[in-house]
Fold these 2 entries.
Entry 1:
Amino acid sequence: MKFLIAEDEQDLRDAIVNYLSDEANICEQAADFNEASEKLELYDYDIAVLDINLITGSGLDLLKRLKAQNKSCGVIIISANNSLENKLEGLDLGADDYITKPFHLAELNSRIKAVLRRSSFGGNDSITFHELRLDTASRTAFVNEKAISLTRKEYDLLLFFITNQGRVLSKAIIAEHLWGDDSDMLDNFDFIYVHINNLRRKLTTEGAKYIQTAYGTGYKFTAI
Amino acid sequence: MKALKKTPLLRKASKAFLLNSIAFMLLSGVALYFYTQSLLQNEIEEELLSTKDRVEHLLQSNPNIQDIPPVIAIAKSKIQQKNSLKDTLIYDPLQDEVELFRQLSGTKLINGTNYRITVRAMVIESQQILLAIVFIFLLLIVLAFVFLFYLNRSRNAKLWQPFFNNLARIKSFNVKSDEPIHLEESDILEFDELNQEVAHLTSKIQVDYRNLKQFTEDVSHEIQTPLAMMQAKIETGFNEPDLSEGQYVMLSALQDDIRRLKNLNKRLILLAKIENNQFTQEEEISIKNIVVEITGNFRELTDTVFELKGNTPLQVKMDPHLAQILCTNLISNAVKYTIENQPILIKFTAKSLQICNAGVQELKDATQVFDRFYKEGNQKDSTGLGLSIVKKICEHYGFYPSYSFKNKADSTENIGFHCFEIKFFT
């Protein structure tokens, strides 16, 4: 997969590129509006991550151009302004998703994967990880093609883990992904343990021991 | 310091006028009475003296003058006596009454005979004249004052009208609006000066208010990008291969701090948005449905039990997003501060929503509980903005938020309830 990251803050751009690049994905960068515009004209991307406030222009204008060119590129808008109008405007213009600063890289990654899954090209209802398989259409998980019963949150959690496999995820990252704004309502993330432990137990009984504890309080989904 | 009693300007002016004029009327009435009285008395005395002179004159040519009772009496006398004046009561056969007379009596030697001459004049007439004069005077002066009073009052009212109009405009002036204050122009110098000062002050306040608001918004938005960079770096750090557990703990603590900043920021932006009237959507919403939904979401996050009472759907017309925030903040406040294993009581009535969480004692500054950054105790992670957002939403829609502490009736334990109530209708 090929991504374009259009973000004017170099540190943030580097961190995103660093997080998203792996053997399956190539990340290209654009530091300002003109560079992004040029690259979008010249090349085809599967996903473009566009910051609204690019120094020399607006990410929303890039989005308009993309849509005018009829390119089949998924678009995720990044904004420093979490106002509803901005969000609606972005989505009305045809953005596939919208994320507000500050965001977790794991969250951005999970949004990108979700957009890729939904897109008509290369869209696939199935996600596999070793003997695990998730059917995203029916929201069911299978271990060796045997369905395991998961709650809604446990399914979301597993999907998030697989999407961010091999990465260290703190409780805050997981809580904000699963509960969004609701996670702000409470001061500690102890409630997360319950859900992770339940999921871990269900997977372990089927022999899929992939949820590892990292550094005491974090988690990592990996086949060791 | 004792508060001064406040009287409306026009009433105060009228009152002063009335009091002064009554005092003036009384004093001038009394003065007029005594002055006229002494005038009349002098007049009578002069008349008596001149009558006596005439009688003496007549006696010189004709010693046999008859008395005219009761006004003239002539008698021969052996004693010499000087003129003396006195009041006396005498029976007047003509009127068949005892009347008050002023009497002048004295002796005079005429043609070798010593006569005692007494002349009298009726006082009653002059008394009546006196009263008539004072009465007419008072009547005229009262009429003049009544006339002046109404003239003065309507004149005052007219004179002060621009002041009252402008006062009303200042009262209805809203710092938050972008409209400058429009004051009625006046041809009175002092009013005009006052207008200019007020216009100057209000425009300065408006500018300051706008700047402050803009500053809060700008800071809140500008801070998002650096926060995003910090957060991204932390996550990059999480995935460094040679990260130690101590470093991980530090990084995740940083992550929590960033989250606090983010929450604080989000709430400040929300407050600014409510102030900017950016929530204009209005729908009929059932508060009960919202609360049921929120408590449902909370079940995944906490073991706290919610007890819902009341069957009314509590339909309120407001922005659905704000309704959600209002209820969420109240419930999340209750969940945060309740004592462990104590249920949260939520009651719906036809007009209000009440949310109570268990607590040990009443808040020390109950009046400040809805203020920004008010924190009781040492709940480290609270932004101190949740309830001020509740207050702001209530202000926006004219709801009435209140706090009270209720002791548990049927318990010997030292536990009561912090109750937050929102009255949606009056």
Entry 2:
Amino acid sequence: MEFLIALMVGALVAAAVYLMLARNVLRFLFGLLLISNAANLLIFASGGLTPESPPLIPEGAKLPPEGVANALPQALVLTAIVIGFGLFAFALVLIYRGYQTMGTLDSDEMRLAEPEDGH
Amino acid sequence: MTSLIVRAATRLLVGLLLMFSIWMLLRGHNDPGGGFIGGLIGATGFILYAIAHGSKAAREALRLDPQTIAVSGLAVAFLAGLAGLIPGDAIFTGQWLFLGATEGDKGLPLSTILVFDLGVYLVVLGAVLTLVFALEEEI
Amino acid sequence: MADHGSNSRVLGGPAGWISILLPLSLFLWFLQFLPAIAAGEVLVWQIDWVPSLGVSLGILLDGLSLTFALLITGIGALVTLFSSSYLGGHIHYTRFVIYLLAFMTGMLGLVLSDNLLALFVFWEVTTVSSYLLIGFDADLAKARRDALQALLVTGIGGLAFLAGIVLIGIASGGFSIAAIEGSLADHPLYLPIFLLVVAGAFTKSAQVPFHFWLPNAMSAPTPVSAYLHSATMVKGGVYLLARLNPSLGGTDIWFWTLVVFGGVTAVFASVLAIRQTDIKQVLAYTTLMALGTLVMFIGVGSDYAIEAAMAFLMVHSFYKAALFLMIGIVDHGTGTRDATVLRGLGRAMPFTMLAAVLAALSMAGLPPMFGFVGKEFLYKAALGAPAMLWVTGCIFVASALMFAAGGIVAFRPFTGNLAKTPVTPHDGPWPMLVGPILLGLFGLAFGLMPDWAEPLVRPSTAAVLGRDAEVDLYLFKEVNAAFLLSLATFAVGFVIYLIHPLLRVGLARVPPLFDPGWNRGMDGVAAGTHGLTALIQTGRLRRYIFVTFMTLAFALGAAIWRADLTPEIPALEDLRVKHWAVLIFILAGALLTAFTNSRMTAVAALGVVGIGVALVFIIFGAPDVAITQLLVEVLQVVLVAVAMLKLPNLNPEYIRTIRGWDLALAVTLGVMTTVILLAVMTVPLDLRLTEFFEVTSVPEAFGRNIVNVILVDFRALDTFGEIAVIAVAGLGAYALLRGTRRPNP
């Protein structure tokens, strides 16, 4: 299964990069979503994959059962997901606002800061 | 969006979702759940309400501005962290009080950790709702 | 400077008092160490500064550093006294004082540091404060340009020096100067160390071919020229060479590099000095001559040579600071510095003339001045040096020209008939006169009583040599070759002085080489950066992203190549339906998102990917993460759906075609990620942190859900930072939507 996860992360990165290189900023946004998914999976997988045993300690016990999943990357990924959502939402609003102001979603035509002719 | 079925069902669903979110928050320390998940579930409830009845009604149901909720959540979490300083520990050290603890039964556990998690809950709820409401009203 | 002299406050007010009293009290403080140092002691103090990098504020006080410290604080006090009158009325006088004191701090730190890294930091402090002081008249384009030139030349040299320091640290096992044992000459890193250190020293001390910045640095106010660009800062490079002589000196390459470049600088500069009409420029070039001489004699490295260099260092600091200050008074009192205009000022400016004559006699090397002692010892050392003809020849030519330059600067302007000057000539106020006269008198006193200088010259010679040496300074002992050479110098120098107007005209025909070269170089750099900017900063977002990902691909590729990662494709066993389902969800979702032209399809495909990822979390025992992932997926779809109502579709007309380059880069990065992740997963995990959390979760944090305990207890501070980010994202988006809404679009 490790190999499959690695393959999936690779595929997600490839699709994300391809999308982020597009002219349409909505595609960029989709790429952003995919790449944060890829990053989360990557962190999760580098912490080791342990099937079907969540890092929970049974009632009354002091230690988790043997062979429980690695809790640390889970904690990292959990916050990363929520932060990734914050980033996505902000980017979405930014794109929306940009469209309202400039009337386009084509990043090549968004040249307020660096106009075509000037320096 | 405004079908009668949806509107009737959401009244019930929203209440359930909110109760569920609080339950998720409280059980988080021992079972899957916690402030992040609770906050997201709570936000989903209000978003559902906003879809059915409009964001104006949802704001009224919320009573407080979502921005206020988010910022006060941040303050709550920070104060919970500061409380660690009182007994002389490092900042953000958890402090526990077991109410009515007897031998064999640890009683009702109260902690700054729970307060901190409540802060997380409020921040996530408030921030997500701020976003969604603002976007919805803008459009 | 139209506004100097219009000084209503006594000695420049509080800023002026501080600037005078501080170096003065430091000077007196340093004096107390003189007996101990003269007796041959070396004082070392250690204070940890950045212990993790091995940087300590070690203070090393021996003859060499004490000599410099006394010159820095003593001349510093006289220069600040001068400035309080010269610049006291300037609107930016306080700023000037701050720069000057910053420089003084840096320079003192430079000569007192035992740690090479600390020395480098102070070295750069002097570079930066020199930049600020040269550009003090920031309204003038020339001052700004000259300041930048000085900063770049010495700054680039400083970087080379830093690299040299790092290599010294590798070679000697530490950064303490006092702890470098023996010579590094046999170390394999000797050559790179030598070249880098010499690059730093030669740029700082303005040796040919890096000399051109120093004459340009004369754009600075005159007290700055007197202080930084003759007496102290430019000797930083000399100090460095002297300080490292025990570790790096004594080799052939050391000898030839220093002797040749020093000699060329000395002769070249003193010839150019004759050519100048601005007497401040004359002095600037004679300073170059002195620096060249010092470098040459440190290169020679014999006992006599070092003794002569150390004596000459003091001689030069006295007379050159005095002459610069004197020129400040002349400039101030007449309104010009043109050597062809200034004549007959002696009657109107008697005190200035006194200072000028005292200093110039020393510069010309006439008895009974200290300058004569210095020159005698230079000759004596030169006659005994290995490359005797070259060294003696250089020093003879330079000294003769120096004699003539002394006449041009300090004799001619004061004699003859008074010529018309922009301002009616008048003497300076006492704060301006004290410095040059006192320094001139020093030159006389040390000349009559050379023994007085021995308590400093002996220990500094010992410090440079790395061992004790016999030092005996005297004014006159016998008629010998050195004395005869001195007489010849006077004769030739006098002839040069007489014919210098002719020489000047002749030399003026030679076009300047280095400064225009610098300009061309800078223009080239500017054009290059312009081209580079045009190439990579196209103003197109996707071009930037492409470059970023391209860089990432190169970095990852290099890492993969260096670690020699070859992915092993393991046997796919015990895969169940749910695994295949996840794989199909994610692969199909990713592909569909990437290539669809319908935004609704894209959103749905993204949802499929999200659910696939959540399934992975469920399968591998992460219920908290999976729940969060699913909830976030739902919210994302809601947000996109809301936003889509107002956004246009995905303009399909220009995305029908596959973007080949983008696709290639994307696939490359994807493959690299897979390879690296596979390699990462084969490395045994360091589970110490996880085990700590598992063991302490119940007993200390009273929680059975370890993930949540980590979030809200163990790493609560991090979580607090993260929820702060979320709150800011929410508020920021709100502000973006509401705060920037136009009144009525």
